[in-house]
């Protein structure tokens, strides 16, 4: 569960689950099970209590995702299946708060101080992005009004999330984390390693 403080304001979260998992035989990564829980549920559990508005971006299995969030948004035209930026753009209109955490369904383990540090760093910037050894992660805090700049970026036929970030008023927040924190689940081997991590945690209790 995320750490919090009295001054911290509540925020929305967009969980990106709209991609195609080709290396997982097309499986919907957000619905893959660890310890009997879908990855999407593991992420949501960690985001409590600092997130009170969850919006899932998904182009598949809407009914199943509605079991975990009140809002499940598909890519809006004309940017269907146009990558993570299209999902963020489509979801931002439905977010209740000005500050919006964005992360992916295939990054199931996040630092406990993620939201606190990103929110502190955001300050007067538009974007705060998590980094490890100066490498940007697909985990960021954005302001809702960024939807306009994303729309222009997409309209110019650009798709790269990292390129969009670098064109914004952004700040990097470096996390000294070891795997499996921030690790992506892209293959069955990755999933097995995550399960082994949970087994190790359970055995140590």
Task: Give an overview of the whole structure.
By secondary structure, the protein is an alpha/beta fold. Helix content is 31%, strand content 22%. It is built from seven helices and nine strands. It has helices spanning 39-47, 62-65, 84-92, 114-122, 147-155, 161-166, 188-204; strands at residues 11-16, 33-34, 37-38, 51-57, 71-73, 99-104, 127-132, 135-143, 170-174. It is globular and about 50 Å long. The chain starts with 10 loop residues before the first strand and ends with a helix. The model has no long low-confidence stretch (mean pLDDT 91).
Q: What order do the helices and strands come in, and which of them pair?
A:
Elements lengths: L10 E6 L16 E2 L2 E2 H9 L3 E7 L4 H4 L5 E3 L10 H9 L6 E6 L9 H9 L4 E6 L2 E9 L3 H9 L5 H6 L3 E5 L13 H17 L1
Parallel strand pairs: 1-4, 1-6, 4-5, 7-9
Antiparallel strand pairs: 2-3, 6-8, 7-8
Helix pairs in contact: 3-5
Low-confidence stretches: none
Order the strands across the largest sheet as they lie in space: 5-4-1-6-8-7-9
Q: How many beta-strand segments?
A: 9
CATH fourth-tier homologous superfamily: Spore Coat Polysaccharide Biosynthesis Protein SpsA, Chain A
Architecture per CATH nomenclature, i.e. the level-2 architecture? Alpha-Beta Complex
The CATH topology is what? Spore Coat Polysaccharide Biosynthesis Protein SpsA, Chain A
């Amino acid at each position: 569960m995320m750490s919090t403080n009295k001054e911290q304001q509540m925020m929305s979260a967009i969980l990106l689950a709209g991609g195609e998992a080709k290396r997982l035989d097309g499986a919907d990564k957000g619905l893959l099970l660890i310890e009997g829980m879908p990855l999407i549920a593991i992420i949501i559990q960690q985001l409590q209590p600092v997130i009170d508005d969850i919006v899932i971006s998904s182009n598949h299995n809407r009914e199943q995702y509605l079991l975990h969030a009140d809002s499940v948004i598909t890519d809006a035209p004309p940017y269907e299946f146009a990558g993570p930026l299209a999902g963020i753009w489509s979801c931002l209109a439905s977010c209740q708060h000005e500050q919006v955490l964005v992360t992916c369904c295939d990054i199931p383990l996040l630092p406990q101080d993620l939201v606190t540090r990103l929110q502190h760093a955001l300050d007067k910037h538009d974007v705060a992005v998590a980094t490890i050894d100066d490498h940007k992660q697909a985990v960021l805090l954005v302001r809702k009004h960024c939807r306009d700049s994303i729309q222009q970026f997409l309209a110019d036929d650009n798709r790269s999330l990292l390129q969009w970030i670098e064109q914004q008023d952004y700040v990097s927040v470096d996390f000294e984390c070891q795997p499996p924190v921030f690790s992506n689940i892209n293959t069955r081997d990755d999933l097995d390693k995550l399960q082994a991590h949970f087994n190790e945690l359970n055995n140590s209790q």
